[in-house]
Design a protein that fits this description.
The structure holds 3 protein chains of 3 kinds.
Chain A: H1 2-18, H2 22-42, H3 46-65, H4 79-99, H5 105-124, H6 128-146, H7 155-170
Helix pairs in contact in A: 1-2, 1-4, 1-5, 2-3, 2-6, 3-6, 3-7, 4-5, 5-6, 6-7
Chain B: H1 8-22, H2 28-53, E1 57-63, E2 69-74, H3 76-95, H4 100-118, H5 122-143, H6 152-173, H7 188-201, H8 210-213, H9 221-244, H10 252-274, H11 279-283, H12 286-299, H13 303-322, H14 332-342, H15 348-363, H16 367-388, H17 401-416, H18 421-436, E3 442-443, E4 449-451, E5 455-456, H19 458-475, H20 497-509, H21 522-529, H22 534-549
Antiparallel strand pairs in B: 1-2, 3-4, 4-5
Chain C: H1 2-19, H2 24-44, H3 62-80, H4 88-107, H5 111-127, H6 134-156, H7 161-179, H8 199-203, H9 206-220, H10 225-249, H11 253-274, H12 277-307, H13 314-324, H14 331-345, H15 347-357, H16 360-369, H17 376-394, H18 397-402
Helix pairs in contact in C: 1-2, 1-4, 2-3, 2-4, 3-4, 3-9, 3-12, 4-5, 4-9, 5-6, 6-7, 7-9, 7-10, 10-11, 10-16, 11-12, 11-14, 11-16, 12-14, 12-17, 13-16, 14-15
The chains are: A mainly alpha, B mainly alpha, C mainly alpha.
Chain lengths: 182, 550, 405
């Protein structure tokens, strides 16, 4: 299951990287939530998986309603982003399967592919909806990673991650006027 | 006397500073009176504590949190240096008109210096010294922000050096308490830091440093107080180094190097003084010259040398109080102060120099050469003093006649105090013995200075000289005081001075050639570094990985 | 229950102030009461006792607890003596929100939960109305979250020794990105309101992020502690040199203030990198002086920065001395502790640090002049900040004891 989750994580990350519209972003986030849930499930954290999935899907649903119109997938000029998804996938596969051990291989590949994709998207994007989606994705990855550490705290960490993922999606996109005052 | 009384010399100026600030609305005069009262009270407290018990008093108030403890100790050395620093500062605070802000800051600086002197460990001394130096800079800026003042870095550096020496001692010896540091812990490196702190903290440098330049300011309120406080503090560190080293520095060549540095400082001051275009420039070199001689004497490493250094510091302190009170016009006050500084017999400056040179000759070996150089420097300083009488004033400051009279009296006291050298030696013998740890090197006697190898009958020698000098002054018929407008030619040109000045000017004028400015454009670099560029961030991440993976 | 309340009460306070925006006095009173309750909860949270009321074990380390107290004190001073043209309620709302986030990070049982709290803070700050583009405001903190998450992920894996070093790089780079120090300086707009500018990351939230990251660093990068120390010291020195010079030479006075924060962070990073208790103590003292000194002084100088007023009054010089870390202000004992730690570790480093301390002077003189002539409550505030700085400059022991040092 974790291997499938890793593929879905790459897919979700890739969609977030390649999408500029709210529907595409929501789809990417939902895929990522599914992957996070799958990874948590395969780690024996069934409640956590449900919580993560719920938070991610809620975030995706909110994103579906806020942001630029349409899917916006692979718009003109997105070739570098496409390359990023491929290169990140290949490197994550190599790192996850050949260079590292510990945890499950699916976990390793999923985390190592999702993080660069989401971070890259956060660094590259100018649109608030895209950035917030990337942040929500990061929250889900954090939720998955939190179980791997030495002091993992069970469902509470998943709940916080889900909350942050949903909250990041719900944040209204602020305008940028020129206010006065300290 | 309860040990807690040791807090009084520090607390009194602080209380005075607060009161001076609070009384600002009542008038500047009130604030000045309050501040000067605080300074005098601190002086009286130090003297009173010492006179009451006549032995070292200690007060331990526990650790402060940064490796230093608030432990105070007042021993003979502390009393001597406390009095030398506080007396002129208190006098100047009393006599000079200054605003409440200046009075407040000066009072706080006095408290900081007393803290530095009373502290029983090096780190707290550094805190006190750094505070005093910072407040000195603030004082200068309050007085006249456009006039020349010490570079902040130049007065902070010595105290950072001392703090470093202190923490190094804490690490290597387990303590930085002067009386508890093992002799072996005073390594050359640590001593070098202390010496740097001493010479830079006191402004005892051969180049035209702040100790000289501050005397050319239009107003001399801050200059007087700053010199009065910081110069003794610099020399104080070298005396404490003797205490740490059980009467010695780690290597004898360090004594020689410091003594040579002192002579060099005095020589440079004399060379500048003999070429001074006006009297103000000449007067600016008086204290640095005396400081150089004091350093030479202290560095010799004998009890007699230390006594000579203390005597020269006393002379410097009195002249520091007199200099800001001098009028522009030529007259008795200027003449007396200049004569006192030049070392006219039987003055304190004369006696101090004689004792210093004698101590150097007594030590022998290469110190004899240092003494010869010191004697030559003294001659040059005397010639510069003689030349200064005919120089134009150089500044336009109005000084009340009463203050000029005080300056004249101070100059006269310095000249007339020569026969009291033996008494000074008697009073300070305990303090000197406390740090030099060479019993019998300097025996107390109210009429003579008795060392291991010689007896200097001070009263018998200097007393008749004083009587003769007094008679000569009484019989002389002073002419009308006139002022000259034309400068005099220097006695000689310092070799290489023009070349050095040209090189310095060129160095200061150095700038990036136009054709290379596009390669190094700080504004463009700032834009790149602070522009929030993700590519730069990723490149930095890669660089960090490469750096750490090697 | 105290750690939970320490998070919840300030968060509730921030929410109350937001909700009661139309009635500023009531908002202020409610926010202040809840904030005071939060501070009380922090006081009552004994460092050695953990709480497990919500199914998650929460506890407060002494260092984090002391930082929370100091940050609360700084917020109280600023709300009581607000800078000109600043609304008390707005200051309180942002401050309590920040405090809640800081407390959440501080009580987190592991770094992952702390990073989640950090992510929440990133999102909340981004929701504010600023002058910079949304992406400019979020980018660097997002990178910080990503790097810290990567560090967490890599620490869970096993592999070659390089892996641990990568964890060290990610932790230190993530910390630098969160703070906005070199090489991850956030974009800065001098006209932007402070709450949405990079200043809170440097001067309010940053200290807690650093304490939390450093506290977990050794567990995560086992075997690469030396790499973390070296990276922190290297970045610290880089920030000291570049930021002090930039603070002196940059064109904008507001940017000069920002660089002065970064320069102080250089000291703090060096202190954390030195690992020894003296180094940690020095770093904490620097952070306290940022919270109680530099931050309030910056906020009180904003008005004169706008007016481009430059004055040479005594107060300007005294402020300059305080900013430069000269004795008797709080920066000096921090520098002494740093010298001590560096000497104990490797004396040439102490020499470099001692020389670098002088670099603060020209920039601080400039910043002191930008204070203008403070009057009224601004003058009272400056006096309080300077008094606190002198008190802890001469006697920092209570603060260090509070931090368990």
């Amino acid at each position: 299951m974790s291997d499938a989750a890793a593929f879905v994580a790459w897919l979700g990350g890739a969609v977030i990287v390649l999408a500029d519209g709210r529907r595409g972003l929501a789809a990417g986030l939902a895929l990522l939530a599914a992957a996070a849930g799958g990874l948590a499930w395969s780690a024996g954290q069934q409640e956590g998986a449900i919580v993560l999935l719920a938070g991610g899907v809620l975030g995706a649903a909110i994103r579906f309603t806020i942001g630029p119109e349409g899917w916006g997938l692979m718009q003109p000029g997105s070739t570098p982003r496409l390359l990023l998804t491929v290169v990140a996938g290949v490197i994550a596969l190599w790192l996850g399967l050949a260079a590292t051990s510990g945890e499950s291989s699916g976990f390793r590949v999923a985390v190592l592919v999702a993080l660069p994709l989401l971070a890259g998207r956060a660094l590259q994007a100018a649109e608030a909806a895209v950035l917030l989606t990337a942040l929500a994705g990061l929250a889900l990855v954090l939720g998955v990673v939190s179980t791997a550490g030495p002091n993992h705290v069970g469902i509470a960490a998943y709940a916080v991650a889900a909350l942050v993922a949903a909250g990041a999606s719900a944040i209204p996109i602020p305008a940028t006027p020129r206010p006065r005052g300290t | 006397m309860p040990p807690v009384a040791l807090l009084a010399p520090i607390a009194l100026p602080i209380v005075a500073a607060i009161a001076a600030a609070a009384s600002a609305r009542l008038g500047e005069g009130i604030a000045r009176i309050v501040a000067s009262a605080g300074a005098w009270a601190s002086l009286v407290a130090i003297a009173g504590i010492w006179l009451a018990v006549r032995s070292t008093q200690e007060l331990a108030l526990g650790p402060l949190g940064f490796g230093a403890s608030f432990d105070l100790r007042l021993d003979g050395v502390g009393v001597v240096f406390g009095v030398i620093a506080l007396a002129p500062a208190a006098l100047l605070l009393t006599l000079q008109q200054r605003g409440w802000q200046e009075s407040t800051v000066a009072s706080l600086a006095i408290a900081a210096v007393v803290l530095a002197i009373e502290s029983d460990a090096m780190v707290l001394t550094a805190v006190g010294g750094c505070t005093a130096a910072t407040l000195a800079v603030v004082q200068f800026d309050i007085e006249d922000v456009r006039a020349v003042r010490p570079a902040w870095a130049s007065v902070i550096t010595p105290w950072l050096a001392l703090a470093w020496a202190g923490v190094t001692l804490q690490i290597e010896a387990g303590t930085a308490v002067y009386a508890a540091v093992p002799v072996s812990a005073l390594t050359i490196g640590i001593f070098a830091l202390i010496a740097i702190a001493a010479v830079l903290g006191g402004g005892i440098v051969p180049w035209r440093g702040w100790a000289s330049r501050i005397w050319t300011r239009p107003s001399l309120r801050a200059a007087g107080v700053t010199t009065a406080l910081l110069l003794p503090l610099g020399i104080y560190l070298l005396v404490r180094a003797y205490e740490i080293g059980n009467g010695r520095y780690p290597q004898s060549w360090l004594n020689l190097a410091l003594a040579a540095w002192g002579v060099l400082v005095a020589l440079a001051a004399a060379a500048r003084a003999q070429a001074a275009p006006n009297r103000a420039e000449y007067l600016a070199e008086i204290v640095p010259g005396l400081a150089g001689f004091a350093l030479m004497a202290v560095a010799i490493g004998s009890a007699l040398g230390l006594l000579a250094g203390v005597v020269l510091l006393v002379a410097a302190a009195m002249l520091t109080a007199a200099l800001p009170l001098l009028p522009d016009r030529r007259g008795a006050a200027v003449l007396l102060v200049v004569a006192a500084a030049a070392g006219v017999p039987p003055g304190l400056a004369f006696g101090g120099r004689v004792l210093g040179l004698a101590a150097a000759f007594e030590t022998g070996n290469v110190f004899g050469l240092v003494a010869v150089a010191g004697a030559a420097t003294w001659l040059l300083a005397a010639a510069a003093a003689a030349r200064s009488v005919g120089l134009p004033p150089g500044r336009r400051r109005l000084v009340p006649a009463a203050l000029a009279m005080v300056a004249a009296v101070l100059g006269g006291v310095v000249i007339a105090s020569g026969p009291a050298l033996a008494a000074i030696a008697t009073v300070t013998s305990d303090a000197i013995a406390g740090v030099m740890n060479q019993p019998g090197d300097l025996r107390p006697d109210p009429l003579s200075i008795i060392t291991v190898t010689a007896v200097l009958p001070v009263v018998a020698l200097f007393g008749p000289l004083l009587v003769l000098g007094g008679a000569a002054v009484a019989l002389s018929k002073p002419g009308q005081a006139t002022s000259t407008t034309e400068s005099k030619a220097p006695l000689f040109a310092v070799p290489g001075a023009t070349l050095a000045a040209t090189a310095l000017a060129r160095l200061r004028a150095l700038s990036m050639p136009d054709q290379y400015r596009s390669l190094f454009n700080p504004a463009a670099l700032e834009t790149v570094a602070a522009g929030g560029r993700p590519m730069l961030w990723l490149a930095a991440l890669v660089a960090l990985i490469v750096a750490i993976a090697r | 229950m105290e750690p939970e309340l320490a998070v919840a009460l300030p968060a509730a306070g921030a929410a109350c102030v937001s909700a009661l925006k139309p009635r500023p006095r009531l908002a202020l009173a409610a926010g202040a009461a809840l904030g005071a309750g939060g501070l009380l909860a922090v006081f009552l949270s004994r460092p050695e006792v953990a709480s497990d009321q919500l199914g998650i074990t929460l506890s407060l380390s002494p260092g984090a607890r002391s930082l929370l107290i100091v940050a609360s004190l700084a917020l109280a001073i600023l709300v009581a003596l607000p800078p000109p043209r600043a609304e008390r309620a707005s200051l309180l709302r942002w401050g309590l929100g920040g405090l809640a986030g800081m407390t959440a990070m501080a009580v987190s049982p592991n770094l992952a939960v702390a990073v989640m709290a950090l992510l929440l803070l990133v999102v909340l700050q981004a929701a504010g109305t600023g002058r910079r583009a949304f992406s400019s405001r979020v980018r660097a903190p997002a990178l910080a979250v990503a790097l810290l998450t990567l560090a967490l992920a890599l620490s869970a894996l096993t592999g070659p020794p390089l892996l641990n070093r990568l964890v060290a790089v990610c932790l230190v780079a993530g910390l630098a990105a969160a703070l906005g120090v070199l090489p991850y300086i956030h974009e800065f707009d001098a006209e932007e309101p402070t709450a949405t500018s990079p200043i809170p990351w440097l001067a309010f939230l940053g200290p807690m992020i650093a304490v939390v990251v450093v506290a977990h660093a050794d567990d995560l990068a086992e075997g690469a502690e030396d790499a973390i120390g070296a990276l922190l010291i290297g970045l610290g020195l880089l920030n000291i040199v570049v930021a002090t010079l930039a603070s002196w030479r940059t064109k904008s006075d507001a940017a000069a203030w920002r660089y002065s924060f970064i320069a102080d962070w250089g000291l703090a990073l060096c202190g954390f990198g030195l690992v020894l208790p003296e180094g940690i103590g020095a770093a904490l003292l620097v952070l306290y002086s940022i919270l109680l000194g530099r931050l309030p002084l910056y906020l009180w100088s904003r008005q004169s920065l706008r007016e481009k007023a430059q004055t040479d009054r005594p107060i300007n010089f005294i402020v300059a001395a305080a900013l430069a870390g000269s004795a008797p202000f709080a920066g000096f004992p921090a520098r002494i502790l740093l010298l001590r730690a560096a000497t104990a570790m490797y004396w040439p480093l102490a020499l470099v640090l001692a020389c670098s301390f002088l670099l603060w002077l020209p920039g601080s003189l400039r910043l002191g002049r930008t204070m203008g002539v403070p009057t009224g409550r601004q003058l009272v505030g400056v006096a309080i900040a300077l008094t606190i700085s002198v008190a802890f400059g001469l006697f920092p022991r209570p603060l260090l004891a509070l931090a368990g040092l």
